[in-house]
Amino acid sequence: MRASVIMLVALAACGQQSAPSSVEENRARPASSQQVRSSPQPIVPAAKPFKVEEETSLYSFAYSWPAEASAVPELVARFTKDKDETKAELIAGAKEDRDGRLKDGYDYHAHETQKHYETEGQSERLLSLESNVYAFTGGAHGSSGSGSLLWDRELKREISIQDLLQPGQSWTGAIRQPFCILLNREREKRREEPVKPDDLFGNCPEWKELTVLVTDTDKNGRFDHITVIADQYVAGPYAEGDYEITLPITATMIDRLKPEYRSSFEPRPPVE
């Protein structure tokens, strides 16, 4: 903006005065006129979220990621490759199903795939994303699932929650016990009866079956909670949907972090 104003002033002056005719006049020219001749610095556009949606008689496809991910070239390349491969698989499967059904005289129902990434929080160093996937391949109903992605901007790669911790330390015990307690409370509400450990969906899911994310609930640039998700069929039947439990990150948990990651977190009181 400043360079534009200087340019206008310089042009106006040129219209009113003749060009300098001597070396002395050239030397007397203000330094600002020399700046006008230099090219302005390019403005880097802010990162924008990405979203694509397609719908045909054969398939329906959607894929998206947030602006925070668009600002990371490595993630853009990764998601773009996955998007293209996912779409190709969708189309191939849909064509095979359609041709088979039409050959056998059955109706064909368009296949569908959706994959969306959402920001769960970010600090100066870390970016936490949740992925949500939905797929329908012509059956009685579609299926959905979740995933987590924790990106270290300094290392320029994905890391796990375990990578945040000092050697020999773990958050599993601090998370699993309160998660199981809160999960049963929620299951009792949905089922309107006590949870029976011997039932098909009575036990607390295994750790490897869960999606675990670090979350910044107040969006102040420091992670303060852990979000644990049990997808459909993990903690209950299809009709119950998924379960999402949010747990505080306590001071004890932060003490187990590697020093370089502690500034990305802030403590909250434990679950009562």
From TrEMBL:
<feature type="compositionally biased region" description="Polar residues">
    <location>
        <begin position="31"/>
        <end position="41"/>
    </location>
</feature>
<dbReference type="Pfam" id="PF13739">
    <property type="entry name" value="PdaC"/>
</dbReference>
<feature type="region of interest" description="Disordered">
    <location>
        <begin position="19"/>
        <end position="42"/>
    </location>
</feature>
<protein>
    <submittedName>
        <fullName>DUF4163 domain-containing protein</fullName>
    </submittedName>
</protein>
<dbReference type="InterPro" id="IPR025303">
    <property type="entry name" value="PdaC"/>
</dbReference>
<feature type="domain" description="Deacetylase PdaC">
    <location>
        <begin position="53"/>
        <end position="143"/>
    </location>
</feature>
